[in-house]
Design brief:
The chain has helices spanning 11-16, 30-33, 46-51, 69-83, 94-97, 107-122, 138-144, 151-167, 180-188, 200-222, 245-267, 273-279, 290-294, 335-349, 378-396, 439-452, and strands spanning 23-27, 87-91, 126-132, 173-178, 229-234, 238-240, 300-304, 309-311, 317-318, 354-358, 401-407, 426-428, 435-437. By secondary structure, the protein is of the alpha/beta class.
Amino acid sequence: MNLLDLERIDPAALAKSFPPDFRWGVATSAAQIEGAAFEDGKGASIWDHFCRQPGRIKDGSNIDVACDHYHRFREDVALMKGLGLDCYRFSFAWPRVQPLGQGAWNEAGFAFYDRLIDSLLEAGIQPHATLYHWDLPQALDEQLGGWLSRDVVARFADYAAEVARRFGSRLASIATHNEPWCTATLGYETAQFAPGHTSRAESLQVAHHLMLSHGDAVAAMRAVTKAPLGIVLNHTPSFPATPNEADRRAARIDDGLNVRWYMDPIFRGAYPADALEHVGADAPRIAAGDLERIRQPLDFLGINFYTRSLFGADGKTVKGPGKRGFTDMGWEIVPEVFAQHLVRLAREYNPPPMFITENGMANADSVVAGPQPHVPDVERIAYLSAHLQALSTAMSLGADVRGYFYWSLLDNFEWNSGYDKRFGLVHVDYRTLERLPKDSARWYRDFIAEHRARR
């Protein structure tokens, strides 16, 4: 089907275009949904600390309660089972299981994840875990300097090995990091995310330490588990706003700092030369042997995709034409770029099997009251169907993708946007914490059922 004519998608035919063993899921992260921020021995994270700094979060909120998933996880697993999901991607909160990021483990924290994993398995849902979704123990930031310190690399590898030792036999996969670009760039260069620094040199050093910690964690986990291991990268493909050479160069540099900066050391054993030249004196300090440690064999690659970037000659992004509209985050909806990028990755990197570990949209949802309240999020249904059509097209062109995780199961804390942006298939009333599946949840449920019928 022509990607420019996505409005005519037949959901039943689309579902049948995926191979029988393709897996459907949803994703969340600990900091965004768990709450219980200081219960049962959990230590503070850098996001607990960041939320308490005036002006950091647009709506002035925090993650003390969030969606209260810590206490309501069984209700949330029941929602997943009702959708017919094959799998669920969640993250461990490092400070919940090791409050200081080093030293003693918190058995109450591990017990929570033990209960969650058991509940998922009992529901027939495969648990896919992420070790780091941005909630570094605050103690490591205060005592060691956070990801600016090479010492944190070893602490992360210890944490990874302990989680893998305890849970590896029951996990369908373990990813080391979620979106290291966000940790480094938004956390250490633009100050949008915790810990809120504004230094490009720091950001690039942090990016290297994240990559190094990924490699060391994979090696440490290989020694204690046979669970499939990988990493989750966010890719925002870069394009020139015009055919001018200056615009093309700006897009190429951004591609080097966004996509290739993380793909190249993992799969090619080097950082991209053009990006290194561009950053000049801000380039990270790389010790002998670092790149060999980063380049560990992986069992899968997770890709998070939301939108693209357009660049002008001044190196600034410009707003795209938005022929399919924009999400509530202001992100241009470009499913055709999703397909193109997956094919590019397959051809240029020959990666291990890929999973779409995040894809979704923030939408200005509202509940329609009545005897049967509902959320008519037709925009999200259109987004989902368009991106699944794009994914099917990419797979037909050679992209080896084994599963898709919609972001997100629940409306939740959207980082520095607070609770204003709703990505969920399930609406959350933040006053009562009541869950209400949206129309998109029913669409996804029916789509999965159509696919499952051919298994």
